[in-house]
Design brief:
Number of strands of chain B: 5
Number of helices of chain A: 9
Largest sheet of chain B: 5 strands, mixed
Order of helices and strands of chain B: EEHEEE
Helix content of chain A: 25-40%
Number of helices of chain B: 1
Largest sheet of chain A: 5 strands, parallel
Radius of gyration of chain A: 20 Å
Helix content of chain B: 10-25%
Oligomer: heterodimer
Distance between the termini of chain B: 38 Å
Structural class of chain A: alpha/beta
Chain lengths: 259, 65
């Protein structure tokens, strides 16, 4: 069965999008990401260390742009201006690649998205030709604004970045999905495989996670668990769950029981 | 000439961005370079002449979520 995720005209067989932060080293990063089966991989853009570690390994030698869709993020940006600048640097760095993950943060305690700046930055980036996948809160009206503006994917948080608290407001995610015509990807908050499965069972188009794998006791094993959870959740969604009932309904026939 | 590169003062023995990249032993790396907040495409690194006092930012990709 062909069941592909389409983002900005490109198709992906994996619905797991994964980050490259917080791993022990690049070997572990590579192994976890390969194991996860993810095809879209986020990276951050930072100043190059000057005058030290000239032979320092480079992330993009381990996670190569010919094998993965590299999704540069704007993590650490607190204003629209910083985020736009970061995306332009990323585009130059990646030879014109124009798919970005926009995240404009509100404060360091919550890393909650700053919506006014997010809207401003999204508009500016889209006008400049970027394809914007946008990290946002779980407000359905904001999600609609971002879609109407031309974002190629809307990515509401399940809970705070790095919190591992799972999807705290599934009702809002559902409201967002009901109206959406672009992929809805739960970004942030997934703590373990069942959280990812729940997002997919609800009908989300994908899940973006990082800490849940990188901070697991065994990251590579968790990457494997996440791959399966995403697939199981997706199949479960497509299969359609049985209705919930208040009372029992026997699975075994009641006729022919020995008297 | 004196430049500010990623926030630190640096004396460049040369003229162009390519000279700077060589001096920093960053040749062959995947980088993006901004001079005075304007991105200078890779194709122009050999030609773009820096000036005393220029503020240069050099960035690369690191792990992130």
């Amino acid at each position: 069965m062909s069941d592909l995720l389409t983002i900005a005209g490109n198709t992906y067989s994996s619905r797991l999008l994964i980050g490259t932060g917080k791993y022990k080293d690049f070997d572990e990063t590579r192994e976890a990401i390969e194991t996860s089966g993810a095809q879209i991989v986020t990276v951050a853009i930072r100043r190059t260390n000057i005058g030290q570690n000239a032979d320092e390994p480079n992330l993009l030698d381990y996670i190569t742009p010919d094998k993965y869709t590299i999704l540069p993020n704007t993590a650490g940006c607190y204003t629209a201006e910083e985020a736009v600048r970061c995306c332009k640097l990323a585009r130059e760095l990646l030879d014109g690649h124009d798919l970005v993950k926009l995240e404009v943060l509100g404060d360091q305690k919550t890393l909650y998205p700053h919506i006014p700046h997010t809207l401003t930055a999204a508009r500016e980036l889209i006008d400049d030709g970027f394809k914007v996948m946008v990290y946002t809160n779980d407000d359905p009206i904001v999600a609609r604004e971002l879609e109407d503006m031309g974002c190629v994917a809307v990515m509401p948080l399940g809970s705070l970045i790095g919190s591992g608290l799972g999807i705290l407001n599934p009702h809002n995610i559902r409201l967002i999905m009901e109206e959406a015509n672009v992929p809805i990807i739960v970004d942030a908050g997934v703590g373990t495989a069942s959280d990812a499965a729940i997002a997919m069972e609800m009908g989300c188009d994908g899940v973006l996670l990082n800490s849940a794998v990188a901070h697991a006791r065994k990251p590579v094993l968790m990457a494997s668990a996440m791959k399966k959870a995403i697939e199981a959740g997706r199949e479960s969604f497509l299969a359609g769950r049985m209705p919930r009932k208040a009372y029992a309904s026997a699975s075994s026939p009641l006729d022919g029981i020995s008297q | 000439m004196k430049l500010t590169v990623n926030g630190d003062t640096l004396t460049l023995n040369g003229n162009t961005i390519a000279d700077l990249v060589t001096q920093l032993e960053l040749n062959g790396r995947r980088l993006a370079v901004e001079v005075n907040r304007e991105i200078i495409p890779k194709s122009q690194h050999g030609d773009h002449t820096l000036n005393d006092g220029d503020v240069v930012e050099i960035v690369h990709a690191i792990g992130g979520g």
